[in-house]
């Protein structure tokens, strides 16, 4: 990459990644809170009790899926920009496009593939989001429990 495209090629896809990460992380936490409230309402648990492993995993998975639904077009654009430069290897998969940036990529997708083009590869991405975000929130809650225990023990 350095020889053929220069040092900036190592940062391909950085702009959509940065534009995507903040709303994705914020949405994950917001939806996690929402799904925890719904869980507590449906199963009549007290909101003050620390969530169990099943609850935090399920609510985390649901929050990951919901957040991914909103930011997926940016994820797709990021990936399309990042794979540029591998045209020879990708010929067998269909037409190869060159994009100059986030806006150019989005407009090309909309013009050539329509609005649904922004959601190609969506289902595997949802599965990944459910698994990873579910496990993130499981470990998040378990870590909070350990920290609360250590805080009580130390004080």
Automatic annotation (TrEMBL):
InterPro entries in the cross-refs: MCP, MCP_dom_sf, MCP_transmembrane
Solcar repeats: 1-38, 51-146
UniProt GO cellular component terms: membrane
GO biological process assignments: transmembrane transport
Keyword Membrane found: yes
Location(s), subcellular: Membrane
PROSITE patterns in UniProt: SOLCAR
Family indicated by similarity: Belongs to the mitochondrial carrier (TC 2.A.29) family.
Name of this chain's protein: Mitochondrial thiamine pyrophosphate carrier
């Amino acid at each position: 990459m350095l020889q053929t495209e220069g040092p900036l090629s190592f940062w391909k896809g950085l702009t959509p990644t940065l534009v995507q990460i903040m709303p994705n992380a914020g949405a994950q936490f917001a939806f996690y809170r929402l799904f925890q409230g719904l869980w507590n309402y449906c199963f009549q648990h007290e909101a003050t009790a620390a969530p169990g492993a099943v609850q935090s995993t399920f609510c985390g998975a649901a929050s990951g899926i919901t957040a991914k639904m909103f930011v997926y077009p940016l994820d797709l654009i990021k990936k399309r920009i990042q794979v540029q430069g591998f045209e020879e290897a990708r010929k067998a998969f269909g037409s190869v496009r060159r994009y100059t940036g986030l806006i150019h990529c989005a407009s090309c997708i909309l013009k050539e593939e329509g609005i649904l083009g922004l959601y190609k590869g969506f289902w595997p991405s949802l599965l990944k989001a459910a698994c990873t975000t579910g496990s993130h929130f499981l470990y998040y809650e378990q870590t909070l429990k350990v920290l609360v225990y250590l805080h009580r023990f130390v004080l």
